[in-house]
Amino acid sequence: MKPMCGIVGYIGQKQAQNILLEGLRKLEYRGYDSAGIAVYNDGKLNVKKTKGPLSALQQLTDKDPLSGEMGIGHTRWATHGKPSDENSHPHMDEKQQFSIVHNGIIENYLDIKEELQEKGYTFASETDTEVIAHLLSELYDGDLVSTVQKAVKRMEGAYALAIANVMEPDKLVAVRLASPLIVGVGDGENFIASDIPAILEHTRDVYVLNDGEMAVLTQDRVELFTTDGTPVNRDMLHVTWDAATAEKDGYEHFMLKEIHEQPKAIRDTLAARLKEGVVDLSREISLTPEELKRFDKVHIVACGTAYHAGLIGKSVIESLVRIPVEVDIASEYRYRNPILTPSTLVIVISQSGETADTLAALREAKQAGARVLGITNVVGSSVAREADEVLMTWAGPEIAVASTKAYTSQLIAIYLLGLYLARVLGTQPEEQLLEVTEALPRLSEQVKSILEDHGSIRKFAEKIAQHENLFFIGRGLDYPVVLEGSLKLKEISYIHSEAYAAGELKHGTLALIEEGIPVIALATQQAVHDKMVSNIIEVKARGAHVLGLGLEGRTDLDRSVDEHITIPETLSLLTPVLSVIPLQLLAYYTSTARGINVDKPRNLAKSVTVE
Ligand code: F6R
């Protein structure tokens, strides 16, 4: 899992503080639960850091500015340890000689921490990052570069690091493994950054570090090495993007960037929880098998897209765990006087963890004595703090109003939960669970392959952009997916659409099907495939123009629809992760074809903190 924090480093002749703060401001979209800087001056690395947005740090530095021409800065999206002043970066060793900022996860940090604790080191935070500062102090041999080389040999996991020390204040070191890092080359000044936008105002000439490489920066030089000391010759990259495009990694909108981040978000959400075909959540969920056995029903409560993930959660939990599940829209749940007992497990799903209706439902359920499990994407959010149990999605910050990567990560969290409960409660034969756990990690690559080939979706989007009404239909697990596809389309293209369980159309809505109306039909569920084809024929007979979305290798769908796109085959239970991708792209391209502000659609906000 890779947190999406931001790193900036500066060495030159100007005041570092303002350059670091400006750089961090450009990276705030990467994480915004805490921020900090360290600036070298007169034999000391002075640190200012605080929980909260960058503006909180700015208040500290406004009151008491840090002077100096070398420093590092960080904006954090918490993973290990809640957002707090202590857990904010930069971190330092006890002697206050090394200061570091870090993106990534040091997987073996507990081993290193224990070893250092035995040697008498004490730790001020809960982070994996702090161990690196102490490790550097322990290994220091008079040369920062060789000390860093020794330290990285001990570290497993992912890291992008910027490192300063007081013994060699003419130097900054950057080192990377599996977490992006670049070096910006200026005139009499050089920069480190996790992302190009942070430094674009100062230079467009950058070196992009590869895994296992480090850079040593002084005011006038940048040298690149591998972490075992071999010099690296790299061509400098001249960035031609404007700052706004750079923030989006070159994508035109955050939504498109986040759609493309899904393979990674899926991998990160699975990582460390699924090993050798076994799902283990015991480190995150404190409920004992005996306590889990006592639950006789599950309520899933959420809003919007998260509610759609909940609808899929119902099928997943009911089929794997065989416990009855009810799914509720949070704003309805509280007022329907739900039957809650200590043997009810209430699952709330919320990307932001701050949605007022979802929080109210969480509180109500707790008060009624139910146990609440929160699935959220934001460490330290209200849901994460108030739920009895928390299962994080590791999608990274989601900036676009329309949720995409958070949604697919919520689905992954639900599959993990279902598999874990099924194993602990023994509700399914091992072989059946194994089939699902083996198919899960393949989803990431399968999503990637859908993203690589979406020309026909784009063309279809351009056609529907001319319409004011359309339909989505699906059966079984395709039904919640079309609800999500329809919501996505409505919110960012302003086209009216209805999502229907395909078998329900003939009970009234079929009257609306007329010549030329677009119908998007999902047909990925084997068990109801033939029934779905009949429903498609029903709408086609009334003049609908049908886009069929089916599984690769099922040619019969091709014959019944006007246009046909496919997704790779997986277990029916897992198809929602794949089938939603073309629908997200459809919404995105329809929105851009209509010239709408995709990332900030009218009347909507990213976090809905009012009821
Ligand atoms: C739609 C969307 C919303 C959210 C809903 C809940 O694209 O993003 O429907 O899913 O407002 O938000 P969270 O998950 O933050 O509780």
UniProtKB/TrEMBL annotation:
Enzyme Commission number: 2.6.1.16
Stored InterPro entries: GATase_2_dom, GFAT, GFAT_N, GlmS/AgaS_SIS, GlmS/FrlB_SIS, Ntn_hydrolases_N, SIS_dom, SIS_dom_sf
Active-site residues (renumbered): 5, 606
Domain SIS: 288-427, 460-601
GO cellular component: cytosol
Chain ranges of the Glutamine amidotransferase type-2 domain: 5-220
Any GO BP annotation: protein N-linked glycosylation
Reaction equation(s) it catalyzes: D-fructose 6-phosphate + L-glutamine = D-glucosamine 6-phosphate + L-glutamate
Organism superkingdom: Bacteria
Alphabetized UniProt keyword annotations: Aminotransferase, Cytoplasm, Glutamine amidotransferase, Repeat, Transferase
Membrane-spanning intervals of the chain: none
One matching Pfam family: SIS
Cellular localization per UniProt: Cytoplasm
GO-annotated molecular function: carbohydrate derivative binding; glutamine-fructose-6-phosphate transaminase (isomerizing) activity
NCBIfam families attached to this UniProt entry: glmS, PRK00331.1
Subunit structure, as described in the record: Homodimer.
Chain's role: Catalyzes the first step in hexosamine metabolism, converting fructose-6P into glucosamine-6P using glutamine as a nitrogen source.
Name this polypeptide is given: Glutamine--fructose-6-phosphate aminotransferase [isomerizing]
Phylogenetic placement of the source organism: Bacteria, Bacillati, Bacillota, Bacilli, Bacillales
